[in-house]
Amino acid sequence: MTARGATPEPAPTAGSLNKQLFVIFSEPGPRQDALAAQIPAHLHYLIGLEKRGTLFMSGPFLDASGNPGPSGMLIVRAGSTDEATAIAAADPFHISGARSFRVQEWQVHQGRIDIAVDLSDRTYHLR
Fold this sequence. Notes:
- The structure is a single chain.
- The protein has helices at about 35-50, 80-90, 90-95; strands at about 20-30, 55-60, 70-75, 100-110, 115-120, 125.
- By secondary structure, the protein is of the alpha+beta class.
- The strands form two sheets. It has a four-stranded antiparallel sheet with strand order 2-3-1-4. A two-stranded antiparallel ribbon has the order 5-6.
- The radius of gyration is 19 Å and the shape is extended.
- The protein starts with 18 loop residues before the first strand and ends with a strand.
C-alpha cells in the first residue's frame, strides 16, 4: 500500500525478460513399437537443433524412481507457433508415430542459469 500521492512501486515483472519460447510436450504415440529404433535419429535431430541455436533445453520426464518415463519436453526458439510446430513435426519420434506432440507458447519472466567456465582446463559446470 502506498501513501496518498506517492508513486506506486513498479510491478515485480516490469523489468522481466519477457522472452518468448515454445514448449513441445512429447507423449507416447500410437506406434510405441517404433520408439527404440528412432532413438539415434531423434538424438541426431536434437543435436542439430542445438547446434543451430534452436533448441534451448530438452529431456525426458522422470518417473517416481528417477528413471526416464515415456514422455518428454523440448523448449525451442521459434518465431511463431507454426514454426515451432514444424520443428516438432520433423522430429523422428513424431514422424514415426512413436510419440505425438503438443506445442505451447511460453513467455519466460524469471529464472537463473549459472555457468562457470574454467579457462585453465577448458571445463565448465552448469548449475
